[in-house]
Amino acid sequence: MKQEQKLSVSAIKNGTVIDHIPANNLFKVIRILGLENLEKQATFGTNLGSKKLGKKAIVKLTDKYFEDDEINRLILVAPEARLNIIKDYHVIEKKQVELPDEIIGISKCVNPKCVTNHENVLPKFNVMPAKDGVSLKCQYCEKITDKDNIEFIL
Amino acid sequence: MKNKSLVSIEDYGKEGMLKILELADYFEKNPNQKILEGKVIASLFFEPSTRTRLSFESAINKLGGRIIGFSDANSSSVTKGESLKDTIITVSKYSDLIVMRHPLEGSAKFASEISDVPIINAGDGANQHPTQTLLDLYSIYKTQGTLENLNIFMVGDLKYGRTVHSLIMALSHFNPTFNFISHEKLKVPTEYKLHLDDLGIKYYEHSEFTDIISRADIIYMTRVQRERFSDPLEYEKTKNIYVLKKDMLVGTKDNLKILHPLPRVNEISEDVDDSKEAYYFTQALNGVYTRQAIIAATLGLV
């Protein structure tokens, strides 16, 4: 297993490796980070074995680095994700996803009467810690969207 | 407070609210001030609300301003399919201030982000109606001489009533004691009770409307709406329980005043109207002074 994994997702010289992505959220991570339009070399692996997540996905990006704000946008889809920053085949820094102050344009507001569900306006939420992760308070209608009601608009 | 939209009551802190009350008092004493001379105020009512609209228009007229706008969405370009965004951007080119009422929640905040001129929220769905809250506060302040340490009774629909929720939030700056009287199904939502717990503010919940009102400084009555009940029989029973009648005012405090955001249906019987405690029609008049104050403050004219 370990050998196969290495073969399918090879090491990179410089760039970022994002590990511990839940396998079913890989494509959301790709969209949230805007990797669809990336012009650099990228490797995506999914349905890899993981003790923590069951099945995980991994992303390896050559010569690509992220700001903390960009990484924190993953809080809804890959809160456990780990980033390894690679220079010359060595991990020089590790990062993880932290609670951002706000989330813009990733998920819908649960309130059917909210203006964001009727007009062409990106939903914006204040992020609040909740028992089972996070909940989102709409900056427009002030209603709370909790984790179970999150609907992605990616 | 200069050129700043009023979207939510939370936009004004305690000091901001007191500033408006002080200004409302000034306009009550000097209602005809032509400070809006040469200004155009847009009054955009995407859903009808005659009372609120007339109150705003009266305030604008007393200040010498001119009004453009519409009183329901049918007479506007909304019927042609124009987006709210386009309407607001266009109207903000024609006017110095926009007063808007819209059925969608968060619409006023959205408008404030795209408009060149300040927005005053005259109600966005079930969300906020901050000018109503400020006129309620002004009415309490005027009749009691203070906002601090009052015993406030709220009666009726405490679950869905937006004016109730905003007033709870606003009064929580002033160390009140609350008594909530409602049907089991129409109790104050938990989030507001948690807020009061956090601040250490005392509140009591009751299902019976009895002589406990003898302790009240203010009774804030609200309408129980038929559509809140799936069972029509339950509505019929409930609407007749939470009714304030004249004989209930025996033994109440001298300073007691009865408020109601109006319109009233049957929850205050008409024989209460000429009692010294009835204050709801004067409260409506206070709305004009309060809105004069809010408009003047929003435009930075005072």
Q: Can you tell me the number of structural domains of chain A? A: 2
Largest interface: A-B, 16 and 17 residues
Alpha carbon gap, first and last residue of chain A: 33 Å
The CATH superfamily of the largest domain in chain B turns out to be: Aspartate/ornithine carbamoyltransferase
Count of the separate structural domains of chain B: 2
The fourth-level CATH homologous superfamily of the largest domain in chain A is Aspartate carbamoyltransferase regulatory subunit, N-terminal domain
Plain-language structure description:
- The complex is a heterodimer of chains A (154) and B (302).
- Chain A has helices at residues 2-8, 26-32, 68-72; strands spanning 15-22, 42-50, 54-62, 82-87, 90-96, 102-104, 124-130, 133-138, 144-145.
- Chain A is mainly beta and 154 residues long.
- Chain A folds into two domains: 2-96, Alpha-Beta Plaits (2-Layer Sandwich); 102-149, SH3 type barrels (Roll).
- In chain A, the strands form two sheets. Chain A has a five-stranded antiparallel sheet, with no helix packed on it. In chain A, strands 6-7-8-9 form a four-stranded antiparallel sheet, with no helix packed on it.
- In chain A, strand 2 and strand 3 (54-62) form a beta hairpin.
- Chain A is elongated.
- Chain A starts with a helix and ends in a 9-residue tail after the last strand.
- Chain B is of the alpha/beta class.
- Chain B folds into two domains: 9-128 and 287-298, Aspartate/ornithine carbamoyltransferase (Rossmann fold, 3-Layer(aba) Sandwich); 131-284, 3-Layer(aba) Sandwich (Rossmann fold), CATH 3.40.50.1370.
- In chain B, the strands form two sheets. In chain B, strands 7-6-5-8-9 form a five-stranded parallel sheet, covered by helices on one side.
- In chain B, strand 1 (40-45), helix 2 (50-62) and strand 2 (66-70) form a beta-alpha-beta unit.
- In chain B, helix 1 (14-29) crosses helix 5.
- The mean pLDDT of chain B is 94.
- Chain A binds chain B through residues 109, 111, 113-116, 118-121, 138-143, and chain B through 8, 83-85, 102-107, 109-110, 124-128.
